[in-house]
Predict the 3D structure of the following.
Amino acid sequence: MKKWIISFIVLFAALAGSLFYSKIYYPDLPIESITKREAAAKGEKSVRKVTKLAEENNTVWYVTQMDQGKGYDLMKEKMAESGWSFIEQNGAGFFFEKGGETLIVNSQMWTGKYVLFSLPNERGR
């Protein structure tokens, strides 16, 4: 009986560790070329910066930590470094302008900690 209990505990711990490691409990990503675990690892490294996640379907995806709204400011700073001027925010869209062109950066909360940004790939950043 004691061996059965120990075996159950070890099996449960291994299963729980596997689920935690894979980040299966995180919400689905809107991109397929990166796993939740990889995205979370890049997000964890994105303290006070915006980190590129992937390029997929003519879209470049970035992640940053939200940190009470500071994630939005970090994206605005990143775009300013590339010469884009912030115009306005409308919902989840951030409008930027550069040389008469308008660029819309879309944002979405991925977890309570991370925000994802998507930008059209054909624009220079």
Notes: The longest strand covers residues 101-109.
